[in-house]
Amino acid sequence: MTAFSRPDGRDNDALRPISFEADFAPNATGSVLVSFGNTKVICGASLEKRVPGWMRAQNVEGGWLTAEYSMLPYSTNDRKQRDSSKGRLDGRSVEIQRLIGRSLRAVMDLKKLPGYTLWVDCDVLQADGGTRTASITGAYLAARLAVQKLVDEEKLKENPLNDSLAAVSVGIFEDNAVLDLPYLEDKDASVDFNVVMTGSGQYVEVQGTGEEATFSEEQLASLLGLAKKGCQEISSMQTAFLSQRLLAGIGS
Questions:
Q1: Contact status, residue 167 vs residue 136, Cβ threshold 8 Å
Q2: Model-level pTM?
Q3: Looking at the domain 18-245, which fold is it?
Q4: DSSP of 136-188, one letter per residue?
Q5: Which tens digits make up the pLDDT trace of 207-219?
Q6: In degrees, to the nearest 5, what angle opens at C-alpha 51 toward C-alphas 116 and 92?
């Protein structure tokens, strides 16, 4: 029987090389270029002194956070047509930006953003699997850097983020549970999951499906275990990154 080997040689429970580059988009209040292997996403956070119309109409206190997601035309092997040239967002982009927005709102006290909307833009520079999980991971960092700048400038009284946020993909590839799938594994995976977790170990969202396949309770537990391990490792990387960027004593 041939031993299982991942295309890139990683162990089943190993993440791809992950890196964060701050201030990649200098006009944003906070920005990060996040890399999960060959997947690279620019995440920028910008503050706007207004809230959505529905909040004003309903006299809802606090502020809002919203996200936008797009893949640049050259992010994939075959050029991807811009949504603007099609005249509409594709369903996948809408679904992913909603996921990013609600994930960040899960760890943010919106009452501490009075009268403001924090926009988080995620633009995929290069796609090799896991663009939504990389976007969430980088979006949290961009938001955290933006928030700190606004607190330092006394535009916000305090940090509205109450926990950190990380995300990772897991799946069943060639009958093996694996962590952080690149495109070669993702396209042939029989089961595909995206898991979003807080730094304190709480689940924010679990998206999982069999790709014309089923999975057992044992496999589900294995996948969630891998995802938890991956998110914990990513959270540690985020903390180390932020400790170099923020004032001493400020956590992630």
A1: yes
A2: 0.91
A3: Ribosomal Protein S5; domain 2 (3.30.230)
A4: HHHHHHHHHHHHHHHHHTTSSSS--B-S-EEEEEEEEETTEEEES--HHHHTT
A5: 999 988 999 999 9
A6: 105
